[in-house]
Amino acid sequence: MRTTTPHQHSPHAHGPTAHPHADAIQAQVLDLDAKVMADHVDAVIEWMPVHSAPTRIVDLGAGTGAGTFALLHAFPDAVVTAVDSSAEHLELLRDRARRDGLDDRIRTLQVDLDAADWPDLGRPDLVWASASMHHLADPDRALRTVRDALGDKGLLVVLELSGLPRFLSPDTPEGPPGLEKRCHAALEPSASARMPHRGSDWAPKLTAAGLEVAAHLALDIAIDSTENEAIGPYALAALTGLRRAGAELLPAEDLAALDELLDTTSPHSILSRSDLTLRTTRFVWAARRPDTDEADEADEADEADEADDPFSPAAEAANCERVLGSRRHGLDSTV
Ligand SMILES: C[S@@+](CC[C@H](N)C(=O)[O-])C[C@H]1O[C@@H](n2cnc3c(N)ncnc32)[C@H](O)[C@@H]1O
């Protein structure tokens, strides 16, 4: 495993590296999200309209490696370059790579993706950016850099979130109903100021960067705590973050309600609740460089096999529906 640390890294206000402790908390949330969302990530990987199995993959804003490891398992001949500004996240990713015996297939690069010049990423055939683009101050420039790096048949896959994940039913706790919704509303202004691109429609951004959107997908996710034992710990970590961020913003009644839910020794602890459901919507865009002659030839060859091609226009809708039963939206109306 090759490691480059640090490369063109500079402190920035947008990523979590502004506060080292925040990195540790985010790492915990990322690992829990990876556990809960593993099937969905695998389904997105299966859905991606790649022309052939990618061998050179770049994971932008890789975090602790949710995407990196899923991609390595899906594509056994691939190597992944995991890029992130957080030294701590990359260290955790390398630890896991060593444990899983995958370190010879991973290179890590500590890079601030808001920097004007990136290190050489080679000619990747897949660039994966999951929940990372909205952290950037200038994602438009980052997308142009990705376009320049991609090969003719290369694919960029951008995954983004609709907002913070929700776990509680609206009448939880019994005292002040709508607690989680109020917490999210209270934190929204500062989150929007720090990450103005959060919740964007990425299709126009991809087009403006000189890429063509090949496919998009919206996954409405609802996972019950009885289906996945990581939902409780994930809810605990997420609400711990809300409690910390909302300390100065939330009314005393809500802070007290949060404290009770977060007290793992209390019978009212969030870990004792059987009514937790993770609700979130994840959006996915797959984009590539516009057709070149070479790509046209490949497309002509592909047309001959269209009946068997799972990514032909006709098959695409069926594929989208197939992704864990999630429904496909026109993104204009949902982003
Ligand atoms: C929400 S996490 C997503 C991590 C991972 N892709 C996943 O799906 O679990 C966002 C990641 O982007 C990284 N990040 C934020 N700003 C960045 C920047 N300017 N340059 C590089 N990485 C950045 C963070 O350190 C973090 O690991």
What does this protein look like?
It is built from 11 helices and 8 strands. The chain is an alpha/beta fold. It has helices spanning 20-47, 66-74, 87-99, 139-149, 179-194, 202-208, 231-245, 252-262, 293-304, 313-322, 331-334; strands at residues 2-7, 56-60, 79-84, 106-111, 126-130, 155-161, 212-224, 277-288. Helix 1 packs parallel to helix 2 and helix 1 (20-47) crosses helix 7 (231-245). Residues 7-18 and 305-335 have low confidence and may be disordered. Strands 1-4-3-2-5-6-8-7 form an 8-stranded mixed beta sheet. The protein has 2 domains: 2-162 and 198-224 and 278-334, Rossmann fold, CATH 3.40.50; 164-188 and 226-274, no CATH class. The protein is globular, with a radius of gyration of 20 Å. S-adenosylmethionine is lined by residues 12, 14-16, 30, 34, 61-63, 66-67, 84-86, 89, 111-114, 130-132, 135-136.
Radius of gyration: 20 Å
What is the CATH-assigned architecture of the largest domain?
Answer: 3-Layer(aba) Sandwich
Strand content: 15-25%
Major sheet, described briefly?
8 strands, mixed
Number of domains: 2
Q: CATH top level of the largest domain?
A: Alpha Beta
Please outline the helices and strands.
Layout (H helix, E strand, L loop, with lengths): L1 E6 L12 H28 L8 E5 L5 H9 L4 E6 L2 H13 L6 E6 L14 E5 L8 H11 L5 E7 L17 H16 L7 H7 L3 E13 L6 H15 L6 H11 L14 E12 L4 H12 L8 H10 L8 H4 L1
Parallel strand pairs: 1-4, 2-3, 2-5, 3-4, 5-6
Antiparallel strand pairs: 6-8, 7-8
Helix pairs in contact: 1-2, 1-7, 5-7, 7-8
Bound molecules: S-adenosylmethionine (SAM).
